[in-house]
Amino acid sequence: MYLLPGVLADQLCLTGDFAAQAQQLMDSRTMTSQHPNVTRLLDDMRATLNKRWQDFEMILHGSLDLGMGLTGASDVDLFVLMPINSSKVHSAVVFEAIDLLRQQPDLYSPDVRVTGLEWRPFFTFYHIPTQMYCDVGFGEEWYDSTGQLSHYFYNLDKHFLQLGKLIKMWCSAHELSGHFKADKMANYLWYLLTILYLQQKNLAPPVYKLQKHSENATLDSWDRSFEPIPYAVRNNESLYQLLGGFFQYYSQFDFQNYIVSPFAGRPIHRSDFLNVDRIPDEFVVYKNIVGSDFTNSSTSNLRSPLYIQNPFVHDFNLAHQMTQDGVSKIVAHMKWAAKVYEEFPSDQFLAAILSPIQDEVVDDDERGEAVHKLQDVLYNNCNDSSLL
C-alpha cells in the first residue's frame, strides 16, 4: 500500500485496483436523504416554516436527489412549494421565511444570502447543529429544470454518476468547491463542466437537441423545457480513463477565450456573442431576447475570467463571481491531476490526486517536482478521509 504524507488521522486506506478503490471511496462517503444530518435540518426547517404557513410541501433536489451526496461535501437544496405564482409574492415569502430563521439564532446563522431577486429569489442559510448549508427556493415543481437535466445526463451511463462523485471528492479535498467564493465553484458548475466533457466525447447530447421536440415551458422569456430523449451511449472507456480524461481535457481548455456551453454541447468562442450575426444558430431564443442590443449585462459577462453558461438562461454566466486567481488555481489543480494520471499507475491514481501535496503546486516547474516527490514518499493508499 501507499501512504500519503501529512496524513495523521481519520485515514481511509484504499486497497485493490482502481475500480475497487473508487467503490470503497463512494461506499464510505455517499450521503443520502436519510442521513441524520439531512433529516435533522429538514425537520428544523419544516418546524420553522410551520410558524407562519401550513399549506406547503418541501422537496429535495440537487446533489442529494441526484445521488451525488457526499458527507462533508454536499449542501441541502430545497424547494418549498406553495400556492403562489407571482414573483412579487415569491419575494415576500422569501423575506418572511428569512425573518423566521433569524428568530432562532440557536439553529440558524444570522448571515443569510438572498439571490435571484430579479426573477425567482432563493436564499442560502447555515444550519448550526449540522454545520450544513441549505439553498431554499419557492416555486412551482417544474421550475427545477436544471436538476432534472442533471438527472438525465448522469444516468445515461453507469459510469457517469461515479465520475461525478470522484470529481466532487477531489474538489472537496482541495477546497475547489464552495458557496459564493471568488476562488471556488459551486458543485453545480462542476456538474456542468463534467457534462460538457462528456458531450465532447459524444457520450451525451447537447441540450438544444433535447428542446427540439419538448413542450415549451417558458419562464421569464427563457424556455426551460427539455425532452429526455433516448441516447445510445457508446462508451468504451473505464471509469479510470474517464476521470483521467476529464483532467486532461480541462488542463488544456482555453477558459480565457471560450464559453462552457452544455446547451450547444461544445465550447463557443466569446467573440461569437459580441455580434448578433455571429451568434450560433442554436441560440434562437437568445437572439429573440437580446437581439442587437449588446448594452446589457450579457456582454459584461464576456469579460469574466470564467464563463459557464446557464443551460436554459443563455445570457447568464453562472461563474461570474470567479476571479482570475481563482480560475488559475483550479487550472493548476487540473494540470497536476492530469500529470499524475499520465505518470502514475492506475492503482495509485486516486491516492495521489487526493494528496495534500497537490495544494502546494503553483507553476509547471513545481508540478514536475511535486509529482516526483509524491512518487518517492507514497507508500500506501491511505488518505485523510476528513478532507473528502
From TrEMBL:
GO BP: any one term: RNA 3'-end processing
Keyword ATP-binding: no
Cofactor: Mg(2+); Mn(2+)
Keywords: Magnesium, Metal-binding, Transferase
Polymerase nucleotidyl transferase domain mapped to chain residues: 45-88
GO molecular function: metal ion binding; RNA uridylyltransferase activity
Residue ranges of every copy of the PAP-associated domain listed in the record: 239-314
InterPro entries, sorted: NT_sf (IPR043519), PAP_assoc (IPR002058), Polymerase_NTP_transf_dom (IPR002934)
Matching Pfam families: NTP_transf_2, PAP_assoc
Entries under PANTHER family matching the protein: POLY A POLYMERASE CID PAP -RELATED, TERMINAL URIDYLYLTRANSFERASE TAILOR
Name under which the protein is recorded: PAP-associated domain-containing protein
Organism listed in the record: Heliothis virescens
Organism lineage: Eukaryota, Metazoa, Ecdysozoa, Arthropoda, Hexapoda
